[in-house]
Amino acid sequence: MKWITREHPKIDRIACPWLIKRFIDPDAEIIYVPFEQVTSKAKELDAIPFDLPGVEYSHYADQCTFDYFLKKHQLKDVALDRMATIIRGADTDRLDIAPQAAGLSAIFLGLSQNIKNDQELLELGLKVYDGLYTWAKHLHQQKHTQAPVEQLLLDVYHKYLKVASPKKAPQWTKELKEMIQDQMDTNMSLSLQQVSDELEINAAYLSREFSKYFDNLSFGDYIRKMRIEKAMLLMETTNYLLTEIAYLTGFSDQSHFNRIFKKQTGQNPSAYRKNGKKK
């Protein structure tokens, strides 16, 4: 079976071939071509296209193509589910949803810069994902610090010393709050990677430290909270359609907006607006 996608793969377009070869079709041939040639070459070579708009194997809502492969082929494996979260976070710049996402993103961004031959990069990438699968299957609970004395010292530090000496909020938190406030007038499309680049702060560090200074929420949860608060304000002060409000607050589609709004407020946007008008 032949599978075809866009050239210059990084994360999802190497993860999906790994999944195909390891769990779906060991003899699969993976083909990389320029974006504009994928559709025509797929027909010419009788290959299945993946990870591009308009084809079956693609992104859906906040899920990436790797997620769709798992669903389509009914691959029930807790280790693959762990990998899917990491891959989704790395591939969509939502580095806050898994601690390992920033590392995976950094590894493949670096490898793609060093290795220009897509097939050579794929071969190395398969080994990287083999390692990630082994970790997700057998080692995900293992910590780097294993020695009892070291662990005891860390426990004491986190339980007593760290709590006893609260630090002043670093300068970057002020700059970040200003950046987020500026986004309130746009469609709230700010990503953790954009923030990391703008502030020149390591994305993994930013993801880890963010909740300490922003309502004890992860970056993604905080941005979603801000989006919903803006949506509520627009519903109360404008006559925009809900689809327009979803767009203005940075949601990819109406169903995604409805789901997040209900999760945050306990009711659908239409019910919220209706109840607001009754008051």
Automatic annotation (TrEMBL):
<dbReference type="InterPro" id="IPR009057">
    <property type="entry name" value="Homeodomain-like_sf"/>
</dbReference>
<feature type="domain" description="HTH araC/xylS-type">
    <location>
        <begin position="174"/>
        <end position="275"/>
    </location>
</feature>
<dbReference type="InterPro" id="IPR018060">
    <property type="entry name" value="HTH_AraC"/>
</dbReference>
<dbReference type="InterPro" id="IPR018062">
    <property type="entry name" value="HTH_AraC-typ_CS"/>
</dbReference>
<dbReference type="Pfam" id="PF09828">
    <property type="entry name" value="ChrB_C"/>
</dbReference>
<dbReference type="Pfam" id="PF12833">
    <property type="entry name" value="HTH_18"/>
</dbReference>
<dbReference type="InterPro" id="IPR020449">
    <property type="entry name" value="Tscrpt_reg_AraC-type_HTH"/>
</dbReference>
<keyword id="KW-0238">DNA-binding</keyword>
<keyword id="KW-0805">Transcription regulation</keyword>
<protein>
    <submittedName>
        <fullName>Helix-turn-helix domain-containing protein</fullName>
    </submittedName>
</protein>
<dbReference type="GO" id="GO:0003700">
    <property type="term" value="F:DNA-binding transcription factor activity"/>
</dbReference>
<dbReference type="GO" id="GO:0043565">
    <property type="term" value="F:sequence-specific DNA binding"/>
</dbReference>
<keyword id="KW-0804">Transcription</keyword>
<dbReference type="InterPro" id="IPR018634">
    <property type="entry name" value="ChrB_C"/>
</dbReference>
